[in-house]
Design goal:
The chain is an all-beta fold. It is built from no helices and twelve strands.
Length: 177
């Protein structure tokens, strides 16, 4: 079909596909070592049940040593951070989050790749972030949101495995909206 496109303005750009017809996210490329586990809530007589994590989902990452939750106010951004040894597993308990990942590992096949995910109670998923991948999280909803993190290495108060960069760092090619 040869459609006349004279209605398009000069700066118009067609949206990239974000889902397949089977509602699977259509991502061209994934950062090496990152896992995205889509979770389907189960409707019950009393409401619904949502699994957060199962051991068979975590074949590439070690066990869980600590679980904690963070609350984020609407519009708040927590970025940028990475860990040298720790694997993060993020799950949105309530609200809506934008999770941005950046691979700065020079020995990685996906070095320089940046990916963005939107997770929330309406579309639950577990994001497994390997060590040395920079990440930032934003509550883009209108209410306080709760994010759960199940890490493989508990926080060490005397020697934290937690590295930070400024939100506006030019080393990560992303600007939160």
């Amino acid at each position: 079909m040869n459609e006349n496109k004279n209605w398009l303005l000069a700066q118009a750009q067609q949206d990239a596909a974000s889902m397949t017809k089977n509602w699977v996210p259509s991502r061209n490329k994934q950062i090496e070592g990152v896992s995205i586990i889509e979770i389907k809530p189960v409707m019950t007589d009393y409401g619904h049940l949502t699994e957060v994590m199962r051991s068979e989902w975590l074949t590439s990452a070690p066990g869980v040593d600590q679980i904690f939750v963070s609350t984020m106010h609407p519009g708040h951004i927590s970025a940028w951070h990475a860990h040298g040894k720790t694997t993060d597993r993020l799950f949105a308990v309530t609200g809506q989050f934008r999770v941005v990942l950046f691979d700065a590992r020079q020995d990685s096949p996906t070095y320089g790749l940046l990916t963005e995910y939107k997770i929330g109670a309406q579309r639950p998923m577990l994001i497994v972030i390997p060590p040395k991948v920079w990440h930032g999280v934003q509550n883009y909803g209108s209410e306080i949101s709760v994010l759960l993190n199940a890490v493989d290495l508990a926080y060490q108060y005397d020697d934290p495995d937690h590295w930070r960069m400024p939100l506006d760092s030019k080393e990560i090619p992303y600007t939160f909206k």
